[in-house]
UniProtKB/TrEMBL annotation:
<feature type="binding site">
    <location>
        <position position="204"/>
    </location>
    <ligand>
        <name>AMP</name>
    </ligand>
</feature>
<feature type="binding site">
    <location>
        <position position="74"/>
    </location>
    <ligand>
        <name>AMP</name>
    </ligand>
</feature>
<keyword id="KW-0808">Transferase</keyword>
<feature type="binding site">
    <location>
        <position position="136"/>
    </location>
    <ligand>
        <name>AMP</name>
    </ligand>
</feature>
<feature type="binding site">
    <location>
        <begin position="53"/>
        <end position="58"/>
    </location>
    <ligand>
        <name>ATP</name>
    </ligand>
</feature>
<dbReference type="GO" id="GO:0046033">
    <property type="term" value="P:AMP metabolic process"/>
</dbReference>
<comment type="function">
    <text>Catalyzes the reversible transfer of the terminal phosphate group between ATP and AMP. Plays an important role in cellular energy homeostasis and in adenine nucleotide metabolism. Adenylate kinase activity is critical for regulation of the phosphate utilization and the AMP de novo biosynthesis pathways.</text>
</comment>
<feature type="binding site">
    <location>
        <position position="243"/>
    </location>
    <ligand>
        <name>ATP</name>
    </ligand>
</feature>
<feature type="binding site">
    <location>
        <position position="79"/>
    </location>
    <ligand>
        <name>AMP</name>
    </ligand>
</feature>
<comment type="similarity">
    <text>Belongs to the adenylate kinase family. AK2 subfamily.</text>
</comment>
<feature type="binding site">
    <location>
        <begin position="100"/>
        <end position="102"/>
    </location>
    <ligand>
        <name>AMP</name>
    </ligand>
</feature>
<keyword id="KW-0418">Kinase</keyword>
<keyword id="KW-0496">Mitochondrion</keyword>
<dbReference type="InterPro" id="IPR027417">
    <property type="entry name" value="P-loop_NTPase"/>
</dbReference>
<dbReference type="InterPro" id="IPR006259">
    <property type="entry name" value="Adenyl_kin_sub"/>
</dbReference>
<protein>
    <recommendedName>
        <fullName>Adenylate kinase</fullName>
        <ecNumber>2.7.4.3</ecNumber>
    </recommendedName>
</protein>
<dbReference type="GO" id="GO:0046034">
    <property type="term" value="P:ATP metabolic process"/>
</dbReference>
Length: 278
């Protein structure tokens, strides 16, 4: 048998690299378009915590897209239930119209309803804005246990309060999707226009330094016990949110076990089978 030339080896490696890329594309397409829902043990089920301006609005959509899960921002969910005039929505509206706070049971039941009826939740969920107290965390855990969908992660985006003022006062939001931008740190491609839809961006009236300090005080008072609760359960992780968004994303992937050494899967396997080293 004639010896294998260097250029033949190079051609084979190029072919393997192209095959790897094609396989990953097909796997990604299958996962998004036609794959069966993941089993409970495979699902992404998490809480995303962090003070105003920490980057939840930037990172949650990326988690949602990568893992094909639903993003349940409880404020938006509550408004949607009221707008749809569901039984829970009508009950919540009655309480809010009287100036009261919606009960933990109503909020947990709204989450339960979304998990049962929202097709985007088939592979898991990101909870944003709930729970805010240990009592809410306990009630949520009870419901998720009954549904055989226990939480896998409670991730806190951590950042010093002093850094948040510059972030929040320059924040821009696309109301329809919740996508966030920043005038300095993450500007849209076109001034005051959403990159995806081209629709106008807004700046929230409560995104100012004085309001932020009050919100931070409330956040820290409420969140510290909840963080301790999830730390004891062994599912809490802290991520440095003072990094640029790309670095925060890599840190999140590390929490989810996605950051791995350089790929040595299919290519190495194919080359080894034909007697070549990659």
């Amino acid at each position: 048998m004639a010896p294998i030339r260097d250029d033949t080896v190079t051609d084979l490696k190029d072919l393997v690299a192209k095959l790897e890329i094609r396989v990953r594309q097909l796997e990604d397409r299958l996962g998004r378009d036609g794959a069966k829902p993941r089993t409970p043990s495979q699902s992404m089920r998490m809480i995303l915590m962090g003070p105003p301006g920490a980057g939840k609005g930037t990172q949650a959509p990326k988690i949602k897209d990568k893992y094909c899960v639903c993003h349940l921002a409880t404020g938006d969910m509550l408004r949607a239930q009221v707008a749809k005039k569901t039984a829970l929505g009508r009950e919540a509206k009655k309480i809010m119209d009287q100036g009261g706070l919606v009960s933990d049971d109503i909020m947990v039941n709204m989450i339960k309803s979304e998990l049962a009826t929202n097709q985007e939740c088939a592979n898991g969920f990101i909870l944003d804005g709930f729970p805010r107290t240990v009592a809410q965390a306990e009630r949520l855990d009870q419901m998720l246990k009954e549904q055989q969908q226990p939480l896998k992660h409670a991730v806190e985006l951590q950042i010093d309060d002093s850094l948040l003022v510059a972030r929040v006062t320059g924040r821009l939001i696309h109301p329809a999707s919740g996508r966030t931008y920043h005038k300095i740190f993450n500007p849209p491609k076109e001034h005051m226009k959403d990159d995806v839809t081209g629709e106008h961006l807004i700046q929230r009236t409560d995104d100012n330094a004085e309001t932020l300090k009050k919100r931070l005080g409330t956040y820290h008072a409420q969140t510290a016990p909840v963080v301790s609760y999830y730390q004891k359960k062994g599912i809490w992780s802290g991520v440095d949110a003072s990094q640029e968004p790309g670095a925060v994303w890599k840190s999140l992937l590390g929490v989810f076990g996605e950051e791995k050494p350089a790929h040595t899967g299919m290519g190495s396997s194919i080359l080894s089978k034909i007697g070549l080293k990659s």
